[in-house]
Amino acid sequence: MTATSESVRNVVLVGQDGAGKTTLAEAMLHLSGKTTRLGTTADGKSNLDYDPEEIKRQFTISTSIAPIPHKDIKINMLDTSGSDDFIGDTIAALGAAEMALFVVDAVSGPQINTIKLWDIVNGMQIAKAVFINHIEREHSNYEEALSELTKQFGPRVGAVNIPIGVDKDFLGVIDVIHMKAHYFENGNDRVEDIPADYLDAAEASRDSLVDLVAEADDELMMKYLEGENLSQAELESLLYTAIGTGLIVPVFVGSALMEQGVGLLMDAVVNYFPRPTDRVPIEASDGSEITIDDNRETSCYVFKSISDAFVGRLSFVKVLSGAIEPGIELTNSRTGKKDRLTQLLEMCGKDNEPVGRAAAGDIIVLPKLSDAKTGDTLSVSGKLEIAPLPFPKPLYPVAIEAANQKDEDKLGDFLARYVEVDPCVTLHRDEQTHQTILSTLGEGAVDLILSRLKERSNVDANLLEVKVPYRETIRRVSQAQGRHKKQTGGAGQFGDCWVRLEPNSGSGYEFLDEVVGGRIPKGLIPAVDKGIRDAMVEGFLTDDPFVDVKAAVYDGSYHSVDSNEMAFRLAGRLAFRNACENADVYLLEPMANVEVTVTEEYAGTIMGDFSTRRGRVAGMSTDDNGRTVIKARVPYKEVITYARDLRSMTRGIGSYALELEGYEEVPGDISKKLVADYQARREEKN
What confidence tens digit (pLDDT) does each residue in 78-100 have? Predict the structure, then answer.
């Protein structure tokens, strides 16, 4: 079907891994006739979790699209990961949708990642709904799950469906909007009157629902408050408005595996979920606003990129304005590069089929764009660019190298391509420690990269401990001579200089020429500077470079024949090292400003842990969600693996931000160990 802006619904499935997001999407595909069987992750035959890594791990890693036709509406259902390690992909999908559908397990209720994702969605101005799944499972408890949703997310949570029985007694679902009971049996939806023993509960749920949605229209609210009954059309109109404006978070219930309640959910998506044109204007980076509109300049946003073995680079885009058709030329606002589109694809899991047009608001896949990355905006003029999404900063670093040195180039090529498509993975070379540092959101992401590296490039890699970039500096003034003399027959080498070193705290390196009377020719003074810089890079206690030193050359001598630039460069190096003997050299370590957000129950644990990491708590506050925010200054060495450690300490509820800022002196006992370790490595190498 060719969708229009009004006939599209973009919905992201979010929630904890194991809640049944993928199975729910598969059930919708099956009921719509898009697939001939219900695929599940458990049997490895899911249409959406098709990647070998997803089949092996039995959970969603990467966002898949399920385009579901239902009652002349195209539902773009985006199935996302519920893992912290892959949350960047989930955030990207949320940026392309108008509705987040939270899938919650009826046994365990809303869990940690559901709560964290709820906060993220709140910050993105996206409507929300909930589907309580697994109602057929042993120990499922609908009332408790609904109560916990209200406790966690507030009184705006309201049931639009209630179950007929739970656990092994689950039979069907009551639609309290239309006050009918639905039983899904043998592929058919049987509709009956509500059983007498559920009538009171259904009426109470309907009354609560009306109370919540009445505020969506002042006139109808007054009618309701004056005791008049709302018509069915009025109730449904209020529900549509209330969902879109966040006045209500509708709660659906059912069993994705049994396909019970799924049809009712699909009807609700079509009738009550917001359309792309309902979304508030999208902020552009220049402060302007982009509205979903077919009649404006064509533009689209790349929210996901993948590299397919058969098709090549695929760019998943949300059409923001205008319409996209083959033959149109779009310009990337980041690079200025133009691409003439040859084909548009509609993806369903890994399968694709060409389509002739995509309207504003629709989601489509563009193959073989020349240089498009996740987050890019494409438009006819190349001048439109939407503001970046709030991707989390990758704070889990590992040092990586090829297991076989001959594979280093292949490793580098693979990682460079990987970083291009994943905004939550970074790669850089630390020139001081000579390590390649790969940073991700957690161990799971690193493990996936290693698996894909082996699968796609046949390369094995080793992970190494990340080396800390220490620095050296001096505490006191010191001076020394550096004299280089070498005679090998013919012209020799002679350089002689006196250098004074002083602490230069916070001001970096500074070089002064205080030579008078021509003791060293002016043309050779820069060579002394170069020699000192050479020695500073080499270090003195260890092989860590110096910072914050003021060096002055104030005396020396030269030979009219044997003195040259190289001789004075070597003399400067010797003078610096000799002066270090009495300059009280000491080590500095990089410091991190860490901001941790946790629930109050974990605040004491976090502060106690910081003290064991040699950290200093700088302050505490409470955020808009009532969570505790703890700020601390901690040596970077102690928080390199903090992503993993915080998750363990807080059972996944904690989050943090980290920024490196400044250096501080390394404590004496640790300094002695670092120097001893360096000397041992040096002796072993020699």
Answer: 999 989 899 999 999 999 999 99
**What SS3 class is residue 318?**
strand
Which residues, other chains included, contact 414 with Cβ-Cβ below 8 Å and sequence gap of 6+?
452, 453, 456, 457, 459
338, β-bridge pairs: 331
Query: 32: which 2 tokens?
Result: 């719509």
60 with 26: CB under 8 angstroms?
A: no
Q: Which amino acid is at 261?
A: G
Q: How many helices (H) and strands (E) does the chain have?
A: 16, 36
Residue 261 to residue 257: CA distance in whole angstroms:
10
Average pLDDT of 609-638? 94
Sequence-ordered list of residues with C-beta below 8 angstroms from that of 677, at least 6 positions apart, any chain: none
Largest CA-CA distance found in the chain, in angstroms, rounded: 114
State pLDDT tens for residues 586-620.
999 999 999 999 999 999 999 999 999 999 999 99
Q: Rounded CA gap, 525 and 515, in Å?
A: 9
Q: Which two tokens stand for residue 671?
A: 């300094």
What pLDDT score does 230 carry?
86
Instruction: Report which secondary-structure segment, H or E, holds 145.
Output: helix 142-153
Per the CB < 8 A criterion, the answer to whether 311 and 352 are in contact is yes
> Which two structure tokens, joined as six digits, stand for 255?
């069993």
What is the token pair recorded at 588? 């500095």
More confident residue, 576 or 294: 576
CB contact set of 496 (below 8 Å; sequence gap of 6+): 481, 482, 483, 484, 485, 556, 557, 558, 571
Mean pLDDT score, 403-420? 93
Give strand ranges (E) for 504-584. Answer: 510-513, 549-557
Integer Cα distance of 135 and 47 in angstroms:
23
Up-side HSE of residue 209: CA atoms within 13 Å toward CB?
28
Q: How far apart are the first and last CA of the chain?
A: 72
Mean pLDDT of the chain: 92
Nearest to 443 by CA among 619, 647, 627, 617: 647
Q: Return the H-helix or E-strand segment holding 348.
A: strand 344-348
